Structure formats: C-alpha cells, structure tokens
Amino acid sequence: MEGNSARAPLRKALTVSVVTYGGDLTHLGPLLKSLAIAADALTGGRDAVRLLLVDNGPYETGRCATLRRQLGGWDGRAEILSGHGNVGYGRGHNLAIARSDAAYHLVMNPDVELAADALAKALAFLEAHADCGLLAPATWDDTGTLQYLCKRFPTVLVLLLRGLGPQWLRRRFRTRLDRYEMRDLINDRDIIWDPPIVSGCFMLFRTDMLNTVGGFDPRFFLYFEDFDLSLRMAQVGRLAYVPQVRIVHHGGGAARKGFSHVRMFITSAARFFGKHGWR
C-alpha cells in the first residue's frame, strides 16, 4: 500500500501490541515490514516505537526462533511475550497494555499492513485532538475494496446475517446491513466523529484513557472484545474514524474459519448483548 511520508510531532513513544496464534505467522512478516516503514516516518523513527509481540501459540523452540527472526530488524525495540498459552485475543493484548508506558498504544491484528504514512498521520491527529481517545483507520481488503468496519450498535438479526448468513440472504437485508455498517457516512475522505463501534484489527488509543477503562474485558475470548471496548472508551473520550490513516486487512469472517469459530462468535455475541443490552 503506497503513501506519502509525513512527520508527526511525536512527544512520547508509541507502544504497539500484536497477538499471534497458529497460522497468523503467515502475515507477520509483511506486517512487521510495513510497521517498520511507518515507524521510520515518525519523529524519532523506529526508536520512538516499542513493539510487544504476544504469542498465544504453544511454546515451541522452533516457533520462538521464527518469531525472533521476524523481529530481527527491531533489535532492542521489540519484546516477545510467550509461554502463557492461548489466553484469548483481548487478554493477550492486556499483557502488553500492562507493560505500556507510552502516550499512545496501538492494538493490531497480525494480518494488517500499514500505509507508509499511517502512524505519522494517526499520531498527528491525536496530538491535535486531545479529546480523542480511540482512532480507527480507513481499511481496504486484498482486492482494494474499502471495508466498512465502523459500526452502529447491532441487533441479533444483523449479527447473525453478517457473521454467519449466506450471500443470498444478506442481499435480502442489504438496507439493514448497510445502516449497521455506517455506509451512509463512511468513505475514504471524511473524518467521522463518534462511531459507536470500531474494529479491533487496528485500534489506536490514548493510553491513559485505555487504562482508565481497564483495557479489554478478559471474559471475551475471541470476537466482540472490540465492540465492548469501543463502547467503554466512549465513556472517557471520543472515537474518530480518520480515513487519512490507511491500512490493508487480510482477515475473514467467522463462518469461513470453521465450526469452532462459529461457536466462539455466538458465545461472545451472547455475552456482549448480556452486558450491553439485547436488540
């Protein structure tokens, strides 16, 4: 993904956490390469960024060696947290958040690639808007299509359709799904303030506000931890969709990942509605 270099008036360091598990290592190399390029565009360059790689995979000598090789270009600016087992996505990031002493903390999926100017533009925006506690970027998929990852509060029907429904059934409810995905507002040009929910594939926080709400709720093992955290972050600061910050996301839906993911999706959805209200 191409982008023009920009310089952010960075006063304090940025901490980045990435949680890996199993096949996630497939995309880790491209992620780290794009992260290094984006970090180099910051004032202070890569030295201003601390990377915490949280490995939820089984502790194996070969796997650890692979991770260390992937992090070779980060020298002493990166740390691998491993040996704790598969504690879940949110709890994995919480291990890194507890180690963060930076002004900003970025939570990212291992299947993301950043534009070269993504970090510079994101931190410049946060420096200019002290009330913003959580920033979401414009996101494209592998085909170059804009993804609609900011959401309004979901209904049970919408979640079932979007997460598990076949294409023909989604087409019948297109208007309802479009509203949920904020397609009436989201584009690749306009900043949108206060989207109710943003995606966990890239969540850039003001760290003090993130600590105020206590990070991710560990009861969400996988799925909906980002929904829950978005709603709680809105209680202490504003959320912003900033399309000048650009990423590519190589992810897929729960239904395409097998029965175990479908089960986790349904379990987490029930927990989310039980906590925030059924609609």
Topology:
Elements: E1 14-20, H1 25-40, E2 49-55, H2 61-70, E3 78-81, H3 89-97, E4 104-108, E5 112-114, H4 118-128, E6 132-140, E7 146-147, H5 156-164, H6 167-172, H7 174-180, E8 192-193, E9 202-206, H8 207-213, H9 225-233, E10 238-249, H10 259-276
What does this structure look like?
This protein has 10 helices and 10 strands. The chain is α/β, with parallel strands linked by helices and 279 residues long. It has a domain of 185 residues: Spore Coat Polysaccharide Biosynthesis Protein SpsA, Chain A, CATH 3.90.550. Strand 1, helix 1 and strand 2 form a beta-alpha-beta unit. The chain starts with 13 loop residues before the first strand and ends with a helix.
The string of secondary-structure elements, in order, is EHEHEHEEHEEHHHEEHHEH
Separation, N- and C-terminal Cα atoms: 38 Å
Work out the radius of gyration.
18 Å
Please, how many helices? 10
Could you describe the largest sheet, including whether it forms a barrel?
Answer: 10 strands, mixed
Low-confidence runs of at least 5 consecutive residues: 1-11
Q: What shape does the CA trace take?
A: globular
State the share of residues found in helices, binned by percent.
25-40%
Mean pLDDT: 90
Strand segment tally: 10
Annotated CATH homologous superfamily of the domain at 14-138 and 191-250: Spore Coat Polysaccharide Biosynthesis Protein SpsA, Chain A
Beta-strand percentage range: 15-25%
Examine the secondary-structure arrangement and name the CATH architecture of the domain at 14-138 and 191-250: Alpha-Beta Complex
* Structural class estimated from helices and strands: alpha/beta
Determine the oligomeric state from the structure: single chain
Would you state the CATH class of the domain at 14-138 and 191-250? Alpha Beta
The fold-level CATH name of the domain at 14-138 and 191-250 is Spore Coat Polysaccharide Biosynthesis Protein SpsA, Chain A
